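Morning!

This is the sequence you dropped in the shared folder:
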Amino acid sequence: MVDLRSRYFFIFWTLLALVVLWQYAPAQRKLDADASFMLYAGQQILRGHAPYVGVAIVKLPVSPLVAALGIASGRAFGLDDILAGRIAFWLCAGIAVGAAYLVGAALAHELTGFQNHALSLTNRSVPRERETNATASKTARLWAFLYGSASAAFFLSFQTLGIQVAEGPEAKLPMVCAGMLCLVLLAREKFFWAGVAGVIAFMAWQPGLVFVAAALGCAFVVTERKRAVPAALSGIALPLLLVGAYLVANGALGSMFRQAFGANANYFEEKKVAVGILSTVVANASKVWSVSLECSATEVPFVYLGYAGMLGGALFLAYRLWKTRDTKLFLAAFPLLLSGAGLFGFSLLDLQKCSDFVPLIPYLALGAAAFFIFLIYLVSVFLAHRAPLGFALGVFLILVILFFGARDAFTQPPQNGIAQQRALAQELAAQLAPQDRVQQFGDAFFLIDTQRENATRFVHLGEKQGLGILTAEGVSMEDLVAQLRAANPRVITLSRAKTKGWAKPLYDWIEMNYTLGASYNASEGGTLKETDIWWRK
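The structure's back. C-alpha cells below.
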C-alpha cells in the first residue's frame, strides 16, 4: 500500500498538469476535424439523440458522453460549447498525469519494500530490526515519491499531450484517464472500482478492453479471490448496464455494435488483412517509432529514454515477478505490463497520427522515469548509499526534466485558429435562413458553432467513419444520396475525403445539383485539404 500522503502528491501533479496544459490555449486553438465529431455527438446527446442514431461514429459512447457532460456544465456557466467540451477532456488529461504519479509510486514502493523486507529478515536483533524497518519504510516512500514524480514530469513534458488537449476533445483521453486510474486501484486492491475504471476505459476506446482483462486477471490472483472476483465483475457490469440501458432506450444499441465494432472490423479486414497481418505489423513497427519522434520533436531525448526504460523495465519486472511470486508486486506490475503490451500491440496494427500516439505516452513516461531512477540509484550506490544526497539529486533532476519538457507550453505562439473557423462559420450562417438544412462531410465545426443539426447522421467520408459505417449499416451510396435528396440541404460542405472512388456517385450528385461557391484552406477557417462549400442550384 502506498503511503496516504500520495493522495496529496496526486492532487499536486493533477493541478500542475492542468496549469501547464492550459498554456496550450484551448480557448483559442483550432478545432481538429476528427475532434469536432465528438463535440457534435455531445450536442446531439443533449438534444435527445443518442450516439449512432444522432450521428454515426466509430468510437464507443464514453467520449461523446463526456463531451455532453462538459457542454451541459459549460452552458450553466455561460461558456460556449467548444470550450466547455474541451474543459471536460482537459480535466481527464490532468487526472491522468496525477494517476501516472500514483502508478509509478505504487510500483516503486512494492519493489523497494520487498528488497527492504528481505534485508530486515537477516537481522536477528529486535531493536535493530525495528530501526531497520523504520529506515526501510522511509526509503521506500522516498523512492516511491521520486519514481512517481519523474513519471508525472515526463508525461506532462510531451507536447503532443498539450496540443491534443487544446485542439480536441481527443476521444482517447478518457480512456487514458480511466486506464491509469484502473492501474492505481488494482495496486490498492480496490477491485470493484478497478472494474468500473477498466470498463470505462474500454467504452471510451475499444483497445481499453485490456484494462478489463487486467482487473479480472488480478482478481483471480489474490488470496481473497472469492471476494475480489465478484467485486471486479460487479464493477465491470455496472457501467455496461447503465450505458447499455441508455442506448437501448434510445434505439441505438444495434447501431452501436454495427458502427463501433462492425465498421472497424470492415476497415481492418479491407486495409490490414488484405495486405497480410505480418506485413502490417512489420510496417507499423517502424511507423510507431517514426510517429513517436515526429510527434515529440522537442522531446526526442525523452522518447529514447522512454523506449529504453520501458523495454528494460518490462524485462526487469517480468524477472522479479517470476523470481518473487509476490502478490502486491504482481498487482502493481502485471496490469501495467499487460496494458502497455496491449496498447503498443494495437499500435502495430493501426497507428496513423499524433492522436494515436497519446495512449502510448504514459508508458513512455513510466519507462523514461524507470531509466532515470536507475541512474539515481547508481549515483546513490556510488555515494555509499547516502539517501539524502541521492534524494536531493533526484528532486533537482525532476525539476530540470519538468522545466525542459514543459517549456513548450509557455512559449507557444499566439493561436487564432478557432477565430478563423468562427469567421468562416459566420460568413456561411449569414447566407442561410433559420430553416435551411446543412450537410457537413469531413468536419462538423459549422454545426457545432451555429448549433444546427446535420441533414443526415453521416459526417465523414473516410475509409473507417465513412465507408466502414455505411457498409456496416447496410447503407449504399444510392441510399445516402436518397437521404440527401429528401433532406434537400441548402449547403453541403465537403472536407478532406473528396476523391474516394467508392463515393463517386455522391460526388456526381453534388456536382449535378449544387454549385461550388468557394474553397477555404486551414488558414481561412477550413481544413488542411480545403473545405469546399457547395450551394444548392
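Headline: The two ends are 69 Å apart (CA to CA).

More detail when I'm at my desk.
O.
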